[in-house]
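quick one, four chains, predict together pls
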Amino acid sequence: MEPRQGAQAIRRALAVLRILAAGREDGVPLAEVVRATGLTRPTVHRIVHVLIEEGIVERHERTGRYAIGNQVPELALARARPSRLLVAANPSLRRASAEIGDTLFLTVRTGNDTLCVDRRIGVYPIQVLSIEVGARRPLGVSSAGVAILAAMPAQDARKIVAANEKRYEAYRTDVATVMGEIAAARRLGYGMREIGLVQGTKSISTWIKTPDGRPAAAMTVSAVRTRLGPRREQEVAEILLREARIIEQAIRG
Amino acid sequence: MEPRQGAQAIRRALAVLRILAAGREDGVPLAEVVRATGLTRPTVHRIVHVLIEEGIVERHERTGRYAIGNQVPELALARARPSRLLVAANPSLRRASAEIGDTLFLTVRTGNDTLCVDRRIGVYPIQVLSIEVGARRPLGVSSAGVAILAAMPAQDARKIVAANEKRYEAYRTDVATVMGEIAAARRLGYGMREIGLVQGTKSISTWIKTPDGRPAAAMTVSAVRTRLGPRREQEVAEILLREARIIEQAIRG
DNA sequence: TTGCCCTGTCCATAATATGGACAAGAACGC
DNA sequence: GCGTTCTTGTCCATATTATGGACAGGGCAA
């Protein structure tokens, strides 16, 4: 069903945009976009510069990096309403945040990426704040990504992981490691990372499925590792699993 | 400087997106996109359907209309910070809103469109609320658009108006009318519409220029016509002009 | 100096996107 | 009922468009 043709250039431009989005405000060097997309440099160069002329991409004077331009939020204003998921998850995030006390994240799947769409800071004095709303990463490099991959049919997960292969290098991981983590998450019932992307942190993620059974999001707790021993890991996982089921019900409504 | 080639399809896709953005949540029928962009129907059809596959565009089941998809806000999250203008204009909008009591709009120029980026509701019991944040229209059909056009070199304005010609029909106006309104705004020092887009309303807009002298935005008051007689029009215009200059200073800082 | 990695540009070529023509469904008038 | 006019969707030969190999310049480290 997917392969409608006659628009290669448009698909490529979007692939470039998604990589640039992962670079947030700082942007991404051209060479990195080339690596991540697998396109040739002249092609990426041409696409990026046309997008600059169109106002969709900006280039930082100092660094030469390319970033999402301000015409993208302008287009996004056409869709002012917050998403169904965000509304449905709100009470659960508040409840779980109060109960757990560590930083909570809501992360959605978008294409081959995870995208952080909400964050709640807890009451405990040490909070992991490195991931911000808007943070975007290849599925598989964060515990949320692993959880989402674990919740989908093995074949689909494998396809996504393979598609992200070129991007894993930048996050110091690889296909084999990710596949192992997915298998572990399936056994456990939730995603987990002893070594978070930030040194000394640990994360636990549960998946949230849409009514049709496909994972759409993950709810994550991140904390300094010492605060998430085996006993507390169990406790936190239970809260997350409980709230994930509640959110799934709320989406249905 | 502009004409970099080798990406016709990408430019066309963006032109389509900008038209779809004008349709907000409801979207736009294919035929309307064809008219507004001047592209052929097969081309628009192909572009729109590729964008649907990519998640950038959505199609409403009931109406068959095409609208901006939720992947656009997702990309926009990469740029979380509010724009410089929005921050700079905030105090002026609050002050002017309190002073005037009618609905205030802040509208930016984006390409050949105006885009409403902020709205303040006043204290007077009858408020013009038809224009919402995110509303997008061809430059020239609203008083804000006329104000922005009036503030740029005549030749540039003429070019934009000509480019929007095909879209004016849908708003029951035409190139000659718009050019006349621009000339009137230049004489007055601000944009004005006796007959607003909504029946029985009247609008007054002042332009806001960036440090390099190009108009970037407009500040607008809309009210029921009876509330904006010649005397009050003068008063309101003076407040708007004063605040516009203050915003221009604030952007500079 | 050399080597390496970055960005930018050219242009012959192949592949891509194009749009005329055709089709079919929906809404309206009579 | 039937024609008219609106809409959206699809096909495919064609030529226009996008492609990427090859080349070049700049910055930095050894």
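Chain A touches chain B through 51 residues (CB under 8 Å).
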